[in-house]
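2 proteins. here.
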Amino acid sequence: MNTMDITQAAVWLPLFFFVAMGIAMLSYVVLDGYDLGIGMLLNRGTDAEKDMMIASIGPFWDANETWIVLGVGLLLVAFPLAHGAILTELYLPVAVMLLGLILRGVSFDFRVKVNIEQKPLWNLLFYIGSLVASISQGIMIGRLIVGFDSGVLGWFFSLLVGLCLPAGYVLLGSTWLILKTEGDLQKKAFRWAKMSLWLTGFGVALVSIATPYFSPEIMHKWFAWPQIIWLSPIPIATGLLFILSRQFIGALEEGKTDKEWLPFASVVAIFWLSFFGIAYSIFPYVIIGEMTLWQAAAATESLWVIFWGAIVVLPTILGYTLFSYRIFKGKATALTYY
């Protein structure tokens, strides 16, 4: 490989891994987001409805969490300097998130294997684990946006994001239930979706207003000319999607359409646009104001080795994820354990 090839590879390989890591994290937020949302809704259903809610995520939820493993793995091997710095700063919320995810995993199995009188306890623990994991993830996103600012305002913003993200997950979960269930549970899902839709909209608006205030670099990227023109379609499209989501939910509830996938698809699109906005705001930094993706990247020779593994692993995970959703498409059925 000549010098020019090495130089070009040193530019595009870190960019490839940045995009791949973004795809993995976005996939995790959307896919594991809806089952975290269902976990936070669990206590609002009857005992039979709780079983059906769990059944709606049963075939998918383990595979959904694969994406966060891939994302963190790419961060470790492709951007080792950033991995050490980020996990050092996020040690506490990451530890709390892992405790929440472990509690969810244990509760998921124990709730159907313990004596019937102990089942409500494990349902409650599944709810608590889902809530704790969701808040922790929101705090982590907030800390990343403010560049790990250690001041009171920086932590206040992170806690704000930590409180807003669970509402978004509940919205994903309720629209997933609209798609996967029927009868009284679906009717409840309509109500949950309408309530969480406006909470999510309020959270997105609040975070969007606060983000440029807490991060001067992001403010410059958002409002400098001509970037403001190119970026303006994102908030406009996001607002329109909130309106469309409400209309889709209302139309389904009133029996005016049978396209039950529309609310979930529109909410996923909202998450995509929000994630794109965050990625645009952060790029080219891995840690805002401190470390670009090229500064944080591993040696080019190492990235080449990882690259060939990534182009095999990433499509494989995507393939079996799509396959599992194809196999278990349609309404959820009773979940059984053997």
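next one coming up
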Amino acid sequence: MPIPDTPLSQQIACFETALAADPRLQASGLLATLDIDTLSYALFEACSVQVDVLRADQLHPVVSGNKWFKLKYNLLQAQRDGCRELLSFGGAWSNHLHALAYVGGLLGFKTCGIVRGNELDTAANPMLAEAQALGMELEFVSRQQFRYYREAPRQLAADLRWVIPEGGDNQLGQLGAASMLLQAHAVAGEYSHVVVAVGTGCTFAGLRQALPDSVKLVGVSALKGAWVEQDMARRMRGLPAGGWYLDQAHHFGGFGKVTPDLLSFIRGFGDNTGLLLDPIYTGKAMMALQDLISESMIPCGSRVLFVHSGGLQGRRGFPITH
């Protein structure tokens, strides 16, 4: 577990050394350096804003984006504790469960997923079918039961079982999210802003811990409700005030909700830049970035790092392709 009063970089270095010693992970490509690409997009160039993209989406064909980062230290701690089974939670299109099924199997764990919606089954969509094919045992529960498990995950604790919160949202998940910048060899101080989509808030909180005070972290919430900012303020307690901003104007109705305008933007942006986005997280985040630049909330002359957190599997559930 994270060691209190130990510098963040030192904690990460200890975990990374242990991960690098596993030949299965070395061979998987999950420890590879993340690329950073500069976007060519007319609106950004017209506003004299440089936007670079941290390509976590390209890390691995199955375990895409930030999912690996929120899982990896949980997996390492489970190994250290002698656990043989990993259990976690997610919705019908959960990239988190999909990633856990793959990497858990890679490391020899039994994997179990609690899925929100007892009307579903493994044939409901390709994500669930693939998770099962990767060896994950799926249990479908009512939304009420799911909330109970999510709020009290220890109720599912058992001998030799490591329980991971939804989205990998715990201290180990935050620490793993913070390591994304190191795996990209990013010089964070070169940027004025870092922009990332926000779901559980685990990646957002982890990145804020890893960034210098001079960099403004902008999160774009995929969820609707005043409670989202309240929860984020609680997470950020003790960190520099003014170092983060949560955009709540681009959720398009709430989690998993989309509009024709959003889908049209994602198609057009992909056509113009070659960068694929998903409608749940990164599409909303990029549309928010466009608007923030257009409205000068991110001013002329800024240099922005956009964290592409993956999730492209979810494109299959929406009419995005022509």
